[in-house]
Design goal:
There is one protein chain. The protein folds into two domains: 9-187 and 225-253, NAD(P)-binding Rossmann-like Domain (Rossmann fold), CATH 3.40.50.720; 188-223, no CATH class. With 274 residues, the chain is an alpha/beta fold. It is built from nine helices and seven strands; from the N terminus they run βαβαβαβαβαβαααβα. The chain has a seven-stranded parallel β-sheet with strand order 3-2-1-4-5-6-7, sandwiched between helices. It is globular, with a radius of gyration of 19 Å. It starts with 8 loop residues before the first strand and ends in a 7-residue tail after the last helix.
Length: 274
């Protein structure tokens, strides 16, 4: 690692597991000090204990609660003396089509995935302005660009996150605050593996087989490793991205360029128009 984040201080929500853990490890390896937040204290503390002493602090809390969101931002500033980078990674993805989705579940998903990001941004931006600037990285999803069946709340929350991010990029660019979005495709995390279990069962295969089935039409026909997404976050937090703001970056193995109809034909050995 080349220490591209030396001296920087980051807050990573949902930072204890999955993509959040990958972000945390890479940021520490690149020289940053990181405060990680999440609802499960033991997960946060286990990850922090595995990294160099003094490099990671923890703040158990729920981003959907504005007091918790404010507390984690203030804890990050106290830990590092400033706040350079905010990564809004906390997210949940319960399914349910519109007519079937309980109102409470819609509110819970939007509250975590979208309103939670608004809260942390609201409380972090004044600190970034005082510090001369900063980088906000919001973790959306390929589902914000291409729909997934029976996931309207998740899709709406992740699409809304793009609009929120670009609005902040416009409003705070003059304050040297950059706000960008990463849209991961299928990424081999515990959350994705759990989501693949019904498909694996239906197809009489395992999770690896289900992932192969899901990604078979992509230019890179596999799921990403979390560290592949983390590398993009390091770039956006670093000075290499000093003129990048309002960007929406799919990190999806090329999934967003695929026409599934044409891909289905090609998989059967037929070219379009033949």
């Amino acid at each position: 690692m080349d220490g591209r984040l030396n001296g920087k201080v980051a807050l990573i929500t949902g930072g204890g597991a999955g993509l959040g853990a990958a972000f945390t490890k890479r940021f520490v390896a690149e020289g940053a000090r990181v405060l990680i937040s999440g609802r499960r204290r033991e997960v946060l503390e286990t990850l922090a204990a595995s990294l160099p002493a003094g490099s990671v602090a923890v703040y158990p809390g729920d981003v959907a609660n504005p007091e918790d969101a404010k507390g984690m931002v203030e804890a990050a500033v106290k830990f590092g003396g400033k706040l350079d980078t905010l990564i809004n990674n906390a997210g949940i993805d319960p399914p349910g089509a519109v007519a079937d989705l309980p109102v409470e579940q819609w509110q819970r998903i939007l509250g975590t995935n979208l309103t939670g990001a608004f809260y942390t941004m609201k409380f972090a931006i004044p600190h970034m302005i005082a510090n001369g600037g900063g980088s906000i990285i919001n973790i959306s999803s390929l589902a914000a660009l291409r729909c997934i069946p029976s996931m309207p709340a998740y899709i709406a929350s992740k699409a809304g996150l793009i609009g929120l991010s670009q609005s902040a990029a416009l409003d705070y660019g003059a304050k040297n605050i950059r706000c960008n979005v990463i849209c991961p495709g299928a990424t081999r995390t515990e959350m994705l593996e759990i989501a693949m279990e019904p498909l694996a069962k239906a197809q009489g295969t395992d999770v690896a087989g289900a992932l192969n089935l899901m990604t078979r039409f992509c230019p890179f026909p596999r799921a990403a490793h979390p560290d592949e997404i983390a590398g993009t976050a390091v770039y956006l937090a670093s000075e290499d991205a000093s003129f990048v703001t309002g960007a929406v970056l799919p990190v999806d193995g090329g999934a967003c360029v695929v026409d599934p109809n044409g891909a289905a034909l090609s998989s059967g050995g037929v070219s379009w128009g033949e």
